[in-house]
Amino acid sequence: MATDSYQITKDRIKEPPSTFWGRLRYLGPGFILSASIVGSGELIATTTLGAKAGFVTFWIIIVSCIIKVALQLEFGKHTILTGQTAMQAFNSFSGPRWGKAHWSVWTFLAMMIFKISQLGGIVGGVGLALNMALPQLSVAWWAVVAGLAAALLVFKGHYPLVERVSLIAIGLFTLLTFVSLFFLQDTPFAITTQEVTSGLDFRLPAAAVGFAIAAFGITGVGGDEIIHYTYWCSEKGYATNVGPVDESLEREARAKGWIKVMQLDALAAMLVYTVVTAAFYLLGAAVLHGQGVVPEGYEMIENLSNMYTQTLGPAAKMTFLLGAIVVLFSTLFAALAAWSRQLSDIFGQVGWINFADPEERAKCIGILAWVLPAIWVALFLFFKSPVLMVLVGGVVTSFILLLVIYAAIQFRYWRTPAAFKPSKGYDVALWISIATIVAIAIYGIIKLV
């Protein structure tokens, strides 16, 4: 890394933009998160839930996208104020420690081990789409190619590349999805207002509970994506622009300015992925549920392509495949970039590496850029069920959200300086977010048991 985005020095201080249009120029971290969830959350989990339950669980998708952004804002604000990543903050909490690390760091590491299956499903999805577009290679070999390509990009790429690839991928597939949703109204699968409103009365059929809990965890920003956000805020420069921690009024003003930029970034990204997620869900509910088709196994991409061929005609299949390849690979790429940073940070907190050393950190990220895809590909080749693998990851993400809640409460009530105390409206939004996540987690556990 040419410059150390995690080292905060006075010579890198930068005044925040003072206008709305000026702030727009510094958006980016939120859209990387959008890229990392759009393949697993929107394309797979959301459409699968729609195919399984029809319109009745539409509310789950909307709530999932909107409700978690308050937690994301709390994490982003803490990083800007302190310069700490999420794992560094976790490791500074009081409470039981095992070795050098706080219990929350070890707990998060354990949950991420179970979440590995989700990325195996994404690798498999890319392999399936590539095999359908270019059948000269088998699904297995295309999965290997996808893993190698992602590894090479993350191994060589820094933050600007991650941001650019994420924005391009989201834009391309979003356009295709909305065109398809528009033309759907001229087919037998046209969506009525009554069908949409029927999905907003907060019902949850028992048969759809597992899918719903997984979709809730994985759509919008998941627990791990909220944690990943702290790395992208650091590498975008939000924290380094504020400067070293001190009690000066100048730093306070800079921090407030960059927090406004971060808030706009998170809210703009939320608007984009909420609308896109809703479109994916409606396509799944209208077309796939209407046909009695639930995406699974090696037929996943073929089933999903029906959403587009039924609305845009058979010629749209190749367009869908190209779009699916782009969006699934962008998820793989963005997730790998985040996972390699996050695990390096965890290794630093438990004492296995020195995360503060730029060279040692870059070396660890580089190694993980190759090791993680190899594990993901191996898991896909073993289980061969991309949808199930993604949904298992979604369930784990729901539990990660509980750990995120614990940290967010710590940030808000024990680590927020008086000058940055939020409004009552913000606190209400935060507690609505917390209460909703806990309630859905408990409800899901009761239903599943």
List keywords for this structure.
single chain, 449 residues, mainly alpha, Amino acid/polyamine transporter I, two-stranded antiparallel sheet, 2 strands, 76% helix
Short description:
By secondary structure, the chain is mainly alpha-helical.
Structure write-up:
With 449 residues, the protein is mainly alpha-helical. The chain has a single domain (11-448), classed as Amino acid/polyamine transporter I. The chain has 18 helices and two strands. It has a two-stranded antiparallel ribbon. A hairpin with a 2-residue loop joins strand 1 and strand 2 (101-102). Helix 10 (209-218) packs antiparallel against helix 18 (424-448) and helix 15 (316-349) crosses helix 16. The longest helix is centred in the middle third of the chain and has 43 residues, at 249-291. The radius of gyration is 21 Å and the shape is globular. It starts with 19 loop residues before the first helix and ends with a helix. The mean pLDDT is 86.
